Amino acid sequence: MSVDEQEWDREVDLLVIGSGAGGMTAALAGAGRGLDTLVVEKASVYGGSTALSGGALWIPNSPVLLREGMTDDPGEVRRYLDSIVGDSVPPERLEAYIEQGPAMMRFLEQASSHLRFSWCKDYSDYHPENVGGRAEGRTVEPLPFDMNLLGSDRELQRPNALAMPGGLYMTSTEFRHLNMFFRTWAGRRTALGVGWRSVVAMVRRRRMETLGQALVGRLRLALKEAGVPLWLNSPLKTLVTDATGAVTGAVVDAGKRELKIRARRGVLLATGGFEQNEQLRKKYLREGGKDNYSAGSPDNTGDGIMAGEQVGAALDLMDDAWWMPSFRRPDGIMHVLVSERSIPPSLIVDQNGRRFTNEASPYVSFVHDQIAGRHDPVWFVFDSKAKSRYQFGGVMPGQKFPTEWFETGLMLRADSVAALAEKMGVPAGAFAAEIDRFNGFARAGVDSDFGRGDSAYDRYYGDPRLPNPTLDEVEKAPYYAVRMEAGDLGTKGGLVCNEHSQVLNWGGNPIPGLYATGNTSASVMGNDYAGAGATIGPAMVFGWIGARHAAGAVS
């Protein structure tokens, strides 16, 4: 769509579309370079999928890590990324991520006193055994944040449906220890600290949040301090181009009428992926992953990707997603299975009653194996010993599983392995043999089939009281099974971008005036995942890069 100059309703330097971490970082970067910047958001709340996430960032050599003595040879980081990305990502884009990530983090810390982070100590890279991988991890997370500092904007942030009850709050690092409350003294000490701190916060009338809520809250406060306006309920309708094909602005639906906004330096798309668009899922995603079990923002329907495609942008990685083993609760909320897959007395089997991969492996790897092998349905199986020791699906030991989980068939329970097999609809003999084989591995402390527990990543959420923290015998009735789905945190495919975050056409040339970041762009992680925060980290880095390029500060 082209628009005559006289038809513009508003003019800015930089128009950012989307208010997740990538979009808000881009807006901060633009404002930091003196650009008149505007953020528009489709939803009635800001924060996107970031607000629903763990809020972690995977950025090697960030100042947070350097202060902890965690220095990285950039060459080692590159070798690690090469080992998981292969040739699916242009080398210039990888180099930009490695080089500019630390600078972006320094900028955030200097831009606002509210942008503060801590190291997730020992949260291993997802492939620490690869060349350049680190078992101690490179992930950082935001410090807990008092949402009251946002004033009236507090209620406009996208809420997390799985918020902690009673004012409790904990970081991801604390969750790891708290998860072992019934097993370790570290878990009990963490519980006491979390409980006391939460009581103090309530007495002081603070509304504390962590994880993605804290990251979004901190970024939003920084935006307010920088004077960057944020419009809600303003979805993108179309991009505007001139006679040469350059993007000069966008049309957004402002409710009462559509507004044509000129962007003198560029439009940066940060609208998320297409995970909630049923038509695009069916068109692009792989068999076994087309059904929607996404934990991404309900507003992520591919708007920015489709708008970019309409002006000639190239697409890549459209068949892939940030896969996550999941189950949908009867109330409709998606629960993602991260720590649960390291529960020692548990195994995951397919329709044949057989294991098919390392249950404790990184979640994208797990679902890749699930989809590639056409394993459907998939059942998470555990015993009453596991129920008495570890949380599952947010249900703590000592708590009963909700009745509706059983009534709806989400969870099955039986007093014998044979009876459970019958309810699951899997061959009883094969299932019993698989449990016997697994129990043999548990006694030996070595999974000879799939290497469960060999990687530092596997062991992170495991039980440190066991020789192999992820292996224990499944032997105590009653037995439980939960049907798992190939869920996702968002889609990976999108607009092809270069190292400056410029969107490229099918000829490999930049479309002037158009930038993209986050899940609107084809992932810099290719088909894999470097570590916790390798979605949000790159989104913020390339948002920062794109805004600075638009401002002319490319070095």
Written overview of the protein:
There is one protein chain. The protein is α+β, with helices and mostly antiparallel strands and 555 residues long. It is 31% helix and 19% strand. It contains 16 helices and 21 strands. The chain has helices spanning 21-32, 63-67, 74-85, 91-111, 172-178, 185-203, 211-226, 278-284, 303-310, 363-372, 384-389, 403-407, 417-424, 428-444, 456-460, 536-551; strands spanning 10-17, 37-40, 57-58, 117-119, 139-142, 145-146, 208-209, 230-231, 236-241, 247-253, 258-269, 315-316, 321-328, 334-336, 346-349, 378-383, 411-414, 479-491, 494-495, 502-504, 510-516.
* Low-confidence sequence ranges: none
This entry's quaternary arrangement is single chain
Average pLDDT? 95
Q: Radius of gyration from the CA trace? A: 24 Å
List the helices and strands and how they pair.
Elements: E1 10-17, H1 21-32, E2 37-40, E3 57-58, H2 63-67, H3 74-85, H4 91-111, E4 117-119, E5 139-142, E6 145-146, H5 172-178, H6 185-203, E7 208-209, H7 211-226, E8 230-231, E9 236-241, E10 247-253, E11 258-269, H8 278-284, H9 303-310, E12 315-316, E13 321-328, E14 334-336, E15 346-349, H10 363-372, E16 378-383, H11 384-389, H12 403-407, E17 411-414, H13 417-424, H14 428-444, H15 456-460, E18 479-491, E19 494-495, E20 502-504, E21 510-516, H16 536-551
Parallel strand pairs: 1-2, 1-11, 2-8, 11-21
Antiparallel strand pairs: 3-5, 4-5, 6-7, 9-10, 10-11, 12-19, 13-14, 13-18, 15-16, 16-18, 17-18, 20-21
Helix pairs in contact: 1-7, 1-16, 3-4, 4-16, 5-6, 13-14
